[in-house]
Amino acid sequence: MKNPTSEIITIGDEILIGQTIDTNSAWIGERMSMIGIPVKRIISISDSSDEIRLALADSISRADVVLITGGLGPTNDDRTKSTLAEFFNSELIEDKTVLEDILQLLKVRNVPVSSLNRAQALVPHNCRVIRNPQGTAPCMWFEKDGKVVISMPGVPYEMISIMETSVLSLLKTHFKTPAILHKTIMTTGVPESKLATMLVDWEMALPGNFSIAYLPSPGMVRLRISGIGDSRTGLETEMSYLTESLVAIVKDYHFGYDEISLEEKIGQILSESHRSIATAESCTGGNIARLLTRIPGSSSYYKGSIVAYANEIKVKYLDVPELMLNQYGAVSQQVVEQMAKSCLLHFDTDFSVATSGIAGPEGGTIAKPVGTTWIAVASREGVFSQCFQFGEHRERNVVKASLAALNMLRIEVLKETISK
Q1: Which of these, 181, 155, 178, lies nearest to 78 by C-alpha position?
Q2: How far is the C-alpha of 130 from the C-alpha of 147, rounded, in Å?
């Protein structure tokens, strides 16, 4: 028996014109993979009956499960429900349970009930209704020729609630699915091409039921190992061995697992070692501070920041001598190290991080092209700095510089923690 597969259809003109980003598909794809019904195709279509019929017929011809989001609102431009009724040779009838849910929800929200609201209690008579605890549009489950079609609201929190409370467990019961495991190894400070070269032999030795995916983003590459099999226990044993052997190869760039962010990892290290940090930023414009402080509980280790974008701020608040600026320039080892040392002193922290660079697109020279960035980490033990060349894209330069700074901090904190 072949393993079941799925496809996703997102309905909405707002998605096609770029007014709304389709975050639903990414969430659904991850959860469907975890239950052993991987998504093989995702398409977005307009709120058109013809488009819905064509897309649905096409997806049913390939996939065992078709998940539809969107087009279930109370307004006339939402045509999904009536089109589904026609597609499955059904008629719309009022579902008393759905109507009661709608009336109760609107009462709690102190919203008057309109005829459009009541119309949302109309559902195709041959569908299985799955209640929506977060909204007025119910989920509808259809079966045809061994295939399952599930229509859900497009509002993300409503869709997620329905999937988590009902749909995923129902699908696991309905289909015999294999055991599937994923493990993500987080790396930074190394390009995808270099990782691929390092892992050639490891990848060639992978068992046939395992695979690896390279998922790059600015300043970071995620390595996702995936395995499929009949026994979850057996998969877990193999996954543990493969993960350990991979990490041993990329250990210089590995910082965590399973989507943990660099700032989360640093927060854990600083909290566990009872150390504190402050930042002095120029080219990153406060982005490192933003990343560090987005982690709950960061007030226990993060003390503050000076965003010294202009040279006069570097002089006035970070004690950078004007002579140093004139002699070496703001983007230099001397200046960034002085920024880090003064930040450490002013905030009285265990560590500080400083950045100074040319984010672009202008301001570069032959000696210091756009993307040139100096980063320094200071502690009571001394100061360490490094020069990077990130390229010509301004926003990517800020992201890459921030991650590089955080990684330098992580390495230094771990080094001092181990030495003590």
Answers
A1: 155
A2: 17
Predicted TM-score (pTM) of the model is 0.78
Query: Within this chain, do residues 80 and 223 fall inside the same structural domain, yes or no?
Result: no
Tens place of pLDDT per residue across the chain (420 aa): 578 999 999 999 999 999 999 999 999 999 998 898 999 999 999 999 999 999 999 999 999 999 999 988 777 667 899 999 999 999 999 999 989 988 888 888 888 888 888 888 899 999 999 989 888 889 999 999 999 999 999 999 999 999 999 999 999 999 988 888 999 999 999 999 999 999 999 999 999 999 999 999 999 999 999 999 888 899 999 999 999 999 999 999 999 999 899 999 999 999 999 999 999 999 999 999 999 999 999 999 999 999 999 999 999 999 999 999 999 999 999 999 999 999 999 999 999 999 999 998 989 899 999 999 999 999 999 999 999 999 889 999 999 999 999 999 999 999 887 766
Half-sphere exposure of 316 (CA within 13 A, CB side): 8
- Hey, which residues does 130 pair with through a beta bridge? 139
Same domain, 142 and 192: no
My answer on whether 369 and 328 are in the same domain is: yes
Range of the domain at 194: 179-257
Whether 91 and 213 map to the same domain: the answer is no
**Across the strands, what pairs with 67?**
8, 150
Q: Is residue 403 part of a domain?
A: yes
The domain total for the chain is 3
Task: Compute the radius of gyration of the chain from its Cα atoms.
Answer: 27
Domain harbouring 295, CATH code: 3.90.950.20
Distance of CA 257 to the CA centre of its chain: 14
Q: Which residues, 6+ apart, have CB-to-CB distance to 267 below 8 Å?
A: 292, 295, 297, 298, 301
φ/ψ of residue 334, rounded to 5:
-60, -45
Burial class (CB in 10 A: 0-12, 13-18, 19+), 214: middle
Q: Domain holding 199: CATH number?
A: 3.30.70.2860
For residue 1, tell me if it sits in a domain: no
